[in-house]
Design a protein that fits this description.
The chain is mainly α and 163 residues long. The chain contains seven helices and no strands.
Length: 163
């Protein structure tokens, strides 16, 4: 198999894997700790391969996540598109941050995502969420260094490097 096909398959596999990780059910006390996997994987690809991740791709992944999750159609598409827009805008700076600063930036992205979700849900007529609603971005930021290193290591083992 040629390298370009392997790169594309790895890219698609990680995005689909993030959608399936989103579907894993957790016990109700652990549900607020569940990170937003599609956002984390899209952020990884924004930093590693900015030309491959576009706003259109973020929108499509978001619509897929909406369909998988059974929420309001376009809700996650809006959130992921906004996050990818900001990440691509600051990609050149974020790539060279040390890991702890990248984790703080990921926390800011995920908190921004939660604020957008809150706005969509409140404008849709839902009540304000409980305090546990804000835990997930912190879990995502704590997972970020491990996710980044695992995906980067797998990319290196498969010898998938951008041209």
């Amino acid at each position: 198999m040629n390298r370009q096909r392997v790169r594309l398959l790895w890219f698609i596999a990680t995005l689909l894997g993030s959608l399936f990780l989103m579907l894993i059910p957790l016990p109700s006390p652990l549900t607020p700790l569940k990170p937003y996997w599609p956002a984390l994987v899209l952020l990884y690809w924004c930093l590693q391969s900015g030309d491959r991740v576009t706003l259109g791709l973020a929108f499509c992944i978001g619509v897929g996540a909406d369909l998988f999750d059974g929420v309001l159609l376009g809700e996650q598409a809006l959130r992921l598109t906004a996050m990818v827009f900001i990440a691509l805008r600051f990609r050149s700076r974020l790539r060279f941050f040390p890991m702890w600063q990248q984790s703080l930036a990921v926390l800011a992205f995920l908190l921004n995502d939660r604020v957008l979700l809150l706005l969509v849900r409140v404008l849709g007529g839902d009540a304000l969420p409980p305090a546990e609603y804000w835990i997930s971005p912190f879990v995502g930021a704590a997972i970020w260094p491990f996710l980044f290193l695992i995906l980067d290591d797998l990319r290196a083992r498969l010898r998938i490097h951008e041209a």
